[in-house]
Each structure stands twice: as C-alpha cells, then as structure tokens.
Amino acid sequence: MPMLGSIKPLSDTLAELYTRVTTHLITQGRRSWGLLPDEATARTGEDSTGCLYRGPDGTMCAIGCLIPDRLYMPSLERLSLADLTTASQWNPVWGILVAAGIPREPEVADLLGRLQEIHDSVPVEDWPTQLAALAEEEAFPIPEVLAAALNDPSWIKTPLPGADRPETGVETPDEEIEDPDDIDPTPWGITPPQY
User: Fold this and answer.
1) What's the confidence (pLDDT) of residue 7?
2) What residues pair up with 54 in beta bridges, in sequence order?
3) SS3 for 56?
4) Domain interval for residue 95
5) What would the pLDDT profile of 101-142 be if each residue is shown by its tens digit?
6) For 100-127, b where at least 16 C-beta lie within 10 A, e where not — what string?
7) Structural domain contains residue 57
8) 75 CB contacts (<8 Å, ≥6 apart)?
C-alpha cells in the first residue's frame, strides 16, 4: 500500500502518460489501423476497418499502448473512445486502464482523448508537430524521440496498407472509376480469406 507521501501529483502523472504515449507513437511511426476483429464485427453485423488497440504487425494506438498484454482482449476493439473520454462514464477499457495504474480522472481522460485524436485523425507525418504543440500547451517536457523526429523527416515508418486513409482504410485512386469491374478487390495483392 503506498504511503501518503509517495502519491504523485496528477500533473506528474499526466506528463508521464504524455511521454509514454508520444514515445510509443513516434517510435512506432504509423497508425494501428486495420480490419476490426470478428468479435467486434459480430456485435454490429458489419465488417469495417478502424483504429485498433492492437493492430497489424504489433502496432498499438495511443490507448492500446497503455493496455498491458495480460489485460488485452479482442472484444475491446470497437469500444468507442467517446465512452472513454469522460471519466465519469465507465466501460471495460477504463477498468483495464485503472487496473494498469492509470487514474480515472477527467484530466487523464481529456489527455488520452487528445492523444488518440492525433493517432486517428492527424496525418502521421504531422504527428511530431501536433504532439509538440500539445506538450507546449500543457507545459510537458518534449521527449527525446519527439525532438529527434521534429528535426528528421525520415523518422516515419512505411505505412501499412490502408493506414494512410483512416476514413475508409482503403486507398482510392485519384481518378473516378466508372465501371465497378475495374476496381481491384485485392489492393496491395492481399487476397481476403474465403469463408
């Protein structure tokens, strides 16, 4: 049991969370994005792509990197971040984050929501500037890996198929395709499994 004197101020916790997530995102250098798992698809009856707590090639999103492997389960996929960004609401993801030692506080929910928004909505090449702006706004120190990325555009990793188009997960050509038979159903040479 922690002694009262060992409890950290929330500002320290926020700065540590920022550093941990920022270091993860910059080191990973690409989104955790892909086909949502069968367990999630079964709940909605739809196949779709989206942000994944655990994605292809071991990728993890801003929240996913905070979830210990022993507590992760595929059924967490598709839980809305909107449910997560209000500390007064409870869902299984909050339960896992609390079990991992992350305090359930409105300031934490706000920070995690902002970091997840960068992961989901900001082009990967713009992550360093957006993460640095967040650090400046919150008076967080800039992690070394972020400082290096701000000065070296080669930090970015080769994106996985679909990771550059989060709104659909599928890259579309610039010219309009009039005949549906002209659409390649297997972009990037990936053949979907037949069931």
Assistant:
1) 62
2) 60
3) helix
4) 8-151
5) 999 888 999 999 999 999 999 999 999 999 999 999 999 999
6) eebeeeeebbebbbbbbebbbeeebeeb
7) yes
8) 39, 40, 92
Identify the pLDDT of residue 163: 45
- Neighbouring-strand partners of residue 39: none
In a domain, 130, yes or no: yes
φ/ψ of 29, rounded to 5, equals 70, 15
Task: Give me the chain's average pLDDT, please.
Answer: 76
pLDDT at residue 41 in the model: 54
CA distance 39 to 36: 8
Q: Which amino acid is at 27?
A: T
User: Both tokens of residue 162?
Assistant: 């679909």
* pTM of the entire predicted model: 0.72
CB 97 within 8 A of CB 115: no
Q: What span, in angstroms and rounded, lies between the C-alpha atoms of 187 and 195?
A: 19
Specify whether the CB–CB gap between 165 and 33 falls below 8 A.
no
Task: Name the residue with higher pLDDT: 97 or 42.
Answer: 97
The b/e string for 64-79 (b: 16+ C-beta within 10 A; e otherwise) is bbbbeeeeeeeebbbb
Q: How far is CA 193 from CA 17, 99, 190, in A?
A: 38, 36, 9
Tokens of 189: 């040479």
Number of domains in the chain: 1
Q: Is 32 a domain residue? A: yes
Please check whether residue 165 lies inside any domain of the structure.
Answer: no
